[in-house]
Write a structure and sequence with these properties.
It contains eight helices and 20 strands. It is an alpha+beta fold. It has two domains: about 230 residues, P-loop containing nucleotide triphosphate hydrolases (Rossmann fold, 3-Layer(aba) Sandwich); about 130 residues, OB fold (Dihydrolipoamide Acetyltransferase, E2P) (Beta Barrel), CATH 2.40.50.100. The strands form four sheets. Strands 6-7-8-3-9-10 form a six-stranded mixed sheet, sandwiched between helices. The chain has a five-stranded mixed beta barrel with strand order 11-12-13-20-14.
Length: about 375
């Protein structure tokens, strides 16, 4: 087992309320284990507590209760500049009057590292981010992606045990942001340093992270590998926040092992139970991803073996290039989004608005969640 690099146990953080209001709990009893050499993402909407959690690891905020350990040592009482971490913010905060090399070496200068050693280590850091040729330029002469890499080099020059990144790509345009996602992931793999990355962008987290903690309301709802989070969400929020999901309300009427039967207006449907504590007779949700649903005409001979089938009609159809998005209203009143990949031009013209159809999916591709 890889060693635990950062460990949070029962962390609570509250901020004073305004005008006599009750305190606001920004982080609500979070526990996490982050391993050495891992690219770990904290993902969630604005206000979910992810940045506050990162700032507590960095030392910029103190928890009201709980413990934080880095390399096995408690750090609650250790000031930020004595912790083995460095932080890259969305605003790179490069000094405009300094050269790139001076920016990268600034922390070493403040630590009274000898000038020759500081120069050598700063150049090494620029080599790590593949920018040794711009050492004499000023920040205004750099592209957004180059500035981002300089900020990473400045954070790496002190040889931190953990690098914290607070939405560092948020200010970049879409194309550059995607390019930098692969750049950061490659850099982290080469360096072997633990990265803890805060983002509200699902695609960003899925692209880069080894594991993701999905957060909402100050709590961690689920931790897992990207594929695990996407394929086996445990809650409605996780299923809805990561990708796109159809939800149909029904009643859990039977369960056997990890399979449940949910009764919908369209009839009984079997699917995988998301959690063990769902009780029969309670309201529940059937969740199914749009790309896991097949679409067939009512007279089509081909089908999927052992598939769930519902009948309805096409309400709307949208051609969006890579696939066509169909909105299907079942005869039981459920509305489903179905995404059909456009493998050729003619495929995009297969189904028309108002056409009766069947929607089909394999049992293992649907999940029953708590309402």
């Amino acid at each position: 087992m890889t060693e635990i690099k950062v460990e949070l146990n029962d962390i609570i953080k509250e901020f004073p309320g305004r005008g006599g209001d009750a305190a606001v709990r920004a982080v609500d009893n979070i526990s996490l284990k982050i391993y050495g050499g891992e690219f770990f993402a904290m993902l969630g909407p604005s206000g979910c507590g992810k940045t506050t959690t990162l700032r507590m690891i960095a030392g910029f905020e103190r928890p009201n209760s709980g413990t934080i350990r880095i390399d096995g040592q408690p750090v609650q009482d250790v000031p930020p500049h004595h912790r083995p971490v460095n932080t890259v913010f969305q605003d790179y905060a490069l000094f405009p009057h300094m050269t790139v090399l001076q920016n990268v070496a600034f922390g070493l200068k403040m630590a009274n590292v000898p000038r020759k050693e500081a120069h050598h280590r700063a150049m090494e850091a620029l080599e790590m981010v593949r920018l040794p040729n711009i050492a004499r330029r000023k920040p205004r002469e750099l592209s957004g992606g180059q500035q981002q890499r300089v900020a990473v080099a400045r954070a790496l020059v002190n040889q931190p045990s953990v690098l914290l990144l607070d939405e560092p790509l948020g200010a970049l345009d879409l194309k550059l942001r995607r390019d930098m996602q692969y750049e950061l992931k490659s850099m982290q793999a080469d360096l072997g340093i633990t990265f803890i990355y805060v983002t509200h962008d699902q695609e960003e987290a899925m692209t880069m992270a080894n594991r993701i903690a999905v957060m909402d309301g100050g709590r961690v709802l689920q931790v897992g590998r990207p594929a695990e989070i996407y394929e086996t969400p445990r809650t409605r929020f996780v299923a809805d926040f990561i990708g796109e999901t159809n939800f149909i309300t029904g009643t859990l009427t039977a369960r056997q092992g990890n399979t449940g039967t949910i009764t919908l207006a369209d009839g009984d449907v079997q699917a995988t139970l998301a959690t063990d504590d769902l009780k029969t007779g309670t309201e529940a949700l059937l969740a199914i991803r749009p790309e896991r649903i097949a679409l067939r005409g009512l007279d089509a001979a081909d089908t999927l073996p052992d598939a769930t089938q519902l009948e309805g009609q096409i309400e709307q159809a949208y051609y969006i290039g890579t696939d066509t998005r169909y909105i299907v209203k079942t005869y039981g009143g459920a509305t489903l989004t179905v995404r059909v990949q456009n493998t050729d031009y003619q495929h995009a013209l297969t189904f028309k608005t108002g056409q009766p159809v069947r929607v089909l999916w394999q049992r293992e591709n649907a999940r029953i969640l708590r309402q």
